[in-house]
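Re: beginner question about structure tokens

> Can someone show what the tokenized structure looks like for a real chain? I only ever see the sequence side.

Sure, here's an example I had lying around. Input first:
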Amino acid sequence: MQTIEEYKEYTAQLEGEVKNWRDAYNASQEHVRQLMKENERLERERVEQNAIIETCANELEELRKHELQWDLDKAKINELRKEPAKLREATRWRKCSEELPEDDEKYLVIDKKGFMHCVYFSTTLKCFQFPVTHWMPLPKAPEAK
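And the corresponding structure tokens:
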């Protein structure tokens, strides 16, 4: 049988243990609240970072579109830069003594007297219809609308 003193001592011991358990529980609850706050902060940060990543991905896609367009424009500019040389080559006078046409077509020619004519060249005969000193291809005909 227990005496009242033993009972009081045992009760005090139990109350001490309960207090320790409550303190530990309260401390763990506080730790859980801090972890939850940290988790919320990290989640907000993750959402913000995902928004930044999405924005960067969209901007990168736009830059790639512009880069592709820039490459196309650059290629077109390079082609256009070649046009004057092509045009000069197509419209330059050639000496018959140095070069003859390669196709059976009409050409613009200058005869020995300096007159300009439009005459046919025969690749079979390798000559024009009459003696000429210079020749050039005719320009392209206008496009029909």
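Each token stands for a local structural state, so reading them left to right follows the chain. The radius of gyration is 48 Å.
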